[in-house]
């Protein structure tokens, strides 16, 4: 009796296996394909390799990376591209399944934010605004590019830049970024963007305090407050050398 059961099970397994390969869309298909892939519903192996799943190498037989976003798979021009940036031409590898999937109902592609930016060429990673719309808040309206100075390629939040760590912006200094950061270069700054600051005035005031190294303003000044001094010319040094020193010199004279 047990031998008969084994034979029946073996026959069922063989039949099931044959059906999987003959009618894979009916036996193991997880759902409908996107409209553009409708003609492939009965040809699973156009995208899938036996037992290993979807393969990018099979995607590019129809979707040529050089034409994605520009031409259809039939070579016809796309009048209104789905994306304003045909960045597929700037990928370092043709790893389609890293971002795209199918059989997912209305959610045809992997969730936004799961894109691996390491797939982009290095120079393309520097041009975020080609793919991403700039935020509309007051700060970002003043900034062009340079996203990587605050944000990482892995996620938008949290941003890593803390301005107060370098200089506290009070009501008199909370101006447009370009006042201090010329040409949106946030790796550099200048304090001479305001009329009250001139090289000669700064030099004279610091020499009077006995300070010779005054080119890097934020090295000592944390804010616009005159007594808010830090670093090697902090209160313990700067004020003693400056105000007390001048008083001693005046008494001596």
**Overall pLDDT metric:** 76
Q: Helicity, in percent? A: 25-40%
Q: What letter string, H or E per element, gives the SSE order?
A: HHEEHHHHH
- When the domains are counted, the total is 2
Number of helices: 7
- Going by helix content, strand content and strand pairing, the class is mainly alpha
Explain what you see.
By secondary structure, the chain is mostly helical. It is built from 7 helices and 2 strands; from the N terminus they run ααββααααα. Helix content is 26%, strand content 2%.
Helix and strand topology:
Layout: H1 2-22, H2 24-27, E1 48-49, E2 53-54, H3 56-59, H4 122-125, H5 138-141, H6 199-208, H7 235-252
Antiparallel strand pairs: 1-2
What is the structure about, briefly put?
This protein is an all-alpha fold. The protein has helices at residues 2-22, 24-27, 56-59, 122-125, 138-141, 199-208, 235-252; strands at 48-49, 53-54. Strands 1-2 form a two-stranded antiparallel ribbon.
Could you list some keywords that capture this structure?
single chain; 253 residues; mainly alpha; 2 domains; two-stranded antiparallel ribbon; 7 helices; disordered C terminus
